[in-house]
Design brief:
The structure holds two protein chains of two kinds. Chain A is built from 19 helices and 22 strands. Chain A is an alpha+beta fold. In chain A, strands 11, 12, 13, 14, 15, 16, 17 and 18 form an eight-stranded mixed beta sheet that branches. Chain A has a four-stranded mixed beta sheet with strand order 1-10-9-8, covered by helices on one side. In chain A, α12 runs antiparallel to α14 and α16 runs antiparallel to α18. Chain A is globular. Chain B is mainly alpha-helical. Classes of the chains: A alpha+beta, B mainly alpha.
């Protein structure tokens, strides 16, 4: 104890002499602190779907073949400087960018630039069971939900800098898939090195990519430390460091923002927005986000297998009320699964109105004049698309009481909740979806197709042949107008059948200190600090 | 004679440790879940492994044999694995322990630095307004719930004034590799260009938690020093010294202090267990990555091997420190030596 006693004396003196100085800030280290709500599950975006992980890793460490322009929604070149789609829509060729350097880290020193081999290595890992790294992961959730293995026939290098993807059937959402945060490009050379050392698990734990920042340190539940990738092919960031500070408690996150220990943080609780928007040293960024909060009915269970009952329930809830009480007015009312910013959206002629009287009539027609009782499952966590599911459930409970339906609110711990949902034990559930890319297919297929009813993300357990056909026809054509027509039909059909009630499209909020510039929030998920600066 | 005394103390210590390990051992059976999992920390054990492990742990033998094997594993450092990280619980605890010791050390130091002089002043000025002020402050500090006090300080010094950070040990942008685990020492040993700023930043981070943690022991020190001082000042030899013409200060320094502080040194040891308990709360509030936060997280996660190991290590430490201060106290104080 003795040396530390002496030390503390020294400290006290230091404090006494320096004590009342104003905050000296972090002179000597330049960097940005981004505070997030949880630890990442992995450092490879291929293996995850959670937004927390994607925000913490993918845009910082990796690049994709192509990106989506946040403003126009168009594809822009990234690692591929150009691409070509064959007329039959079955072959996609990408010409890769020259002189793209991989990260130079303590655990891997690349000897060459990016080439076609890397792209083949990356995507074959998901596709081919005999790929040396395929078995190291139990699943590739995003690619599985896109039915990647049924879709892609072959991936091969045509030249040193040219790659071809051959598909089994045309799929007009294929480029969107390649532009998502999940389609990060890995290093084949690193893979070979790990294979030689028999350290396969390190591929997903000690990441090597081409992105604007390189991996330095990770302490579970504490922080992730990135340094700037000096040779990034895009004009890189001027930040020396990017630290992802893991602060699970949202009150603590706000406190850390106020003391400027965090430079940027997402805020899921809209109630705190007012407090922050009053202060001059913060900027609240509002970004429309591709998401939807909805109320799904388990269509396999009576009486919810009856269309009229579902329509009645949909008519009975007062969405305006929910928007005020749950979203504090910071969301748009949803009248389709697709948000209004999607190109396949069209405002319906009659937005389904709030009409309890008609709801009662419909119930009577369905033979439930006296009403019935129903469980509403409310998810226990806060998400952008539904910041307070319990409150929403209470409001719906009150609305349903007016038409004679007695609702019970049910909630479990989050992992249990999801497991029980997959087992379809629920009557109805309040949950939502955040899109991974701009394609309308990314809303409709994972939420309502027959395939997703099996894989589990279709919470309505709704499998309808006509609807599936419309989705299939839409991806089979490359013509945008034709596709839009199919999607409009699909949305209309969904509104009639009402397997779920879309409730709101929430905006996304990010708070940053006013001395931070150039932070880009992607409407389809991730956050990008490649252009960020601190002044 | 002294050897005999030490031997008796050590014997007692050994006995307490045996009781403690028996308790820790029985936790393996008392916790929910299967016994094998609780003792090894492994999850989803395959039937083949189950056979081998059962044999290794001696689970098919009687409790005494099992306990002896358990003790053997403890001594060899083969503690159970943590459910959440699948790492040896002992290794994990040794990583977080220095943070707690550092915090508790500074808090204890602060409480001595403030508590003892204030206690003396209060005793010397007995029943004057200064004594009343100090005693009132001590009572307030003694009765204040620590979590409320901590939040109050955060609100004033971090959120309103913006002077001090709210959590952690060091600004996250400073990269200091943990050599000893003691932050200030690590910074001094490190070879970075921003050493000075990092040191200053670490002190700023430490200030609030140390003050919060020091509050309770300080008030105890004040009250204890005051009472002990008053006792001493009442003694005949003090009156004699005064009668011989020594000044107040001389009497206080040469006759009063030495005698009054002896019981206080013992109190330091006794305060250690309170300090560790309070440190757990402080660590949770200030996100201080020490053993307290680690243990409380383990309880949330129902991480039984971690709870078992944590209880064992922390209580051993407390008992050890208590015993050591008692021995020191006896050696320094002739009156306490009842050999």
């Amino acid at each position: 104890m003795k040396p530390s006693l002496c030390l503390s004396l020294a400290c006290l003196i230091a404090v006494a002499t320096n004590g009342c100085q104003p905050d000296s800030g972090n002179i000597g280290v330049s960097g940005l602190v981004y505070c997030v709500e949880g630890s990442p599950e992995s450092f490879n975006p291929q293996l995850v779907t959670s937004g927390t992980t994607i925000d913490a890793i993918s845009q910082h460490l990796y690049d994709r073949l192509l990106d989506i322009d946040a403003q126009s929604g168009e594809f822009i070149p990234a690692l591929a400087k150009s691409w070509q789609v064959s007329p039959d829509g079955l072959s996609y060729r990408f010409i890769l960018r020259d002189n793209v350097a991989f990260h130079h880290t303590a655990y891997f020193q690349p000897s060459r630039f990016l080439n076609a081999e890397d792209v083949v290595f990356t995507f074959n890992r998901v596709l081919l069971p005999q790929h040396p790294f395929h078995q190291t992961a139990t699943e590739y959730p995003y690619f599985d939900s896109m039915e990647w293995r049924q879709l892609v026939a072959e991936i091969k290098a045509i030249g040193p800098m040219e790659v071809e993807f051959r598909l089994n059937k045309p799929d007009s959402s294929f480029l969107s898939t390649l532009a998502t945060d999940f389609s990060a490009v890995l290093s084949a050379e690193y893979g070979a090195r790990l294979l030689a050392r028999n350290a396969l698990m390190e591929l997903d734990q000690l990441p090597v990519g081409t992105g604007p920042f390189l991996f330095r340190q990770y302490q579970k539940d504490v922080l992730i430390r990135y340094y700037r990738h000096q040779q990034h092919w895009r004009q890189g960031s001027n930040l020396e460091q990017l630290v992802i500070d893991i602060v699970p408690d949202s009150t603590k996150r706000i406190a850390k923002l106020l003391t400027h220990e965090c430079d940027v943080a997402p805020i899921p609780r809209l109630a705190e927005l007012q407090l922050l928007s009053q202060r001059k040293d913060f900027v609240v960024d509002v970004q429309t986000s591709m998401n939807v909060g909805y109320w799904a009915f388990n269509t396999q269970k009576p009486p919810l297998n009856n269309v009229k009952v579902r329509q009645a329930l949909a008519l009975a809830i007062n969405k305006q009320n929910i928007l005020q009480a749950v979203y504090f007015g910071q969301a748009e009312q949803a009248d389709s699964l697709l948000p209004p910013t999607s190109w396949a959206y069209q405002k319906p002629a009659v937005a389904d109105p709030y009409d309890p009287v008609r709801a009662r009539t419909l119930l009577a027609e369905a033979g439930f004049a006296k009403g019935f009782s129903l469980d509403i499952w409310a998810m226990p966590v806060q998400r952008l698309y539904n910041p307070n599911a319990l409150k929403m459930a209470e409001l719906i409970q009150a609305d349903l009481a007016l038409i004679g339906v007695k609702a019970h609110i049910v909630s479990y711990e989050w992992n249990t909740f999801r497991r029980k949902l997959t087992l379809a034990e629920h009557d109805s559930v309040l949950i939502g979806w955040s899109a991974d890319n701009a394609d309308p297919d990314n809303f409709l297929r994972p939420l309502l197709s027959c395939a997703s009813a099996v894989s589990g993300s279709n919470r309505a357990n709704w499998c309808d042949e006509h609807f599936d056909n419309l989705l299939q026809q839409a991806v089979n054509t490359a013509d945008l107008n034709e596709r839009r027509a199919f999607y409009l039909q699909a949305q209309q059909y969904q509104a009639e059948q009402m397997p779920l009630v879309p409730i709101a499209h929430s905006k996304r909020f990010q708070v940053r200190s006013s001395n931070i510039t150039g932070v880009q929030i992607n409407p389809y998920g991730g956050i990008n600090f490649a252009m960020a600066g601190k002044h | 004679m002294i050897l005999h005394y030490l031997f008796r103390r050590l014997f007692l210590l050994a006995f307490v440790f045996i009781a403690l390990t028996v308790f820790a051992f029985s936790l393996g059976y008392l916790f929910p879940g299967d016994v094998l999992g609780n003792f090894t920390g492994l999850r989803n054990i395959s039937p083949a492994n189950e056979m081998i492990l059962t044999k290794q742990l001696g689970l098919e033998q009687d409790y005494l044999q099992q306990y002896l094997l358990f003790l053997q594993r403890l001594l060899h450092g083969q503690w159970a694995l943590s459910f959440s990280s699948q790492q040896n619980v002992l290794t994990e605890m040794l990583l977080v322990m220095p943070a707690t010791l550092e915090l508790a050390g500074y808090a204890l130091f602060l409480s001595l630095l403030i508590g003892i002089p204030l206690g003396i002043v209060a005793a010397v000025r007995k029943d004057k307004w200064l004594d009343k002020l100090i005693s009132t402050l001590a009572l307030v500090g003694f009765s204040m719930p620590i979590f409320w006090w901590a939040l109050l300080l955060i609100m004033v010094f971090s959120l309103s004034l913006g002077w001090l950070p709210t959590s952690g040990r060091l600004g996250v942008l400073y990269e200091i590799s943990p050599n000893t685990g003691f932050m200030l020492l690590d910074i001094l040993l490190s070879d970075v260009s921003y050493r000075q700023q990092a040191l200053f930043d670490a002190i700023r981070h430490m200030l609030l938690p140390a003050v919060v943690l020091a509050t309770y022991p300080t008030t105890v020190m004040i009250r204890f020093t005051r009472d002990s001082m008053l006792d001493v000042l009442d003694q005949n030899y003090i009156k004699t010294a005064r009668a011989k013409g020594l000044t107040r200060l001389q009497v206080l320094y040469t006759h009063g202090l030495r005698n009054a502080l002896l019981p206080v040194t013992r109190q330091v040891g006794l305060q250690f267990s309170t300090l560790i308990t309070l440190a757990m709360i402080t660590e949770v509030i200030f996100s201080w990555p020490g053993i307290g936060r680690w243990l409380i997280d383990s309880i949330y996660q129902r991480n039984f091997p971690a709870i078992q190991g944590g209880v064992l290590l922390v209580s051993s430490l407390v008992i050890l420190v208590n015993m050591l201060t008692e021995i020191m106290h006896t050696l320094f104080n002739p009156l306490a030596r009842k050999f």
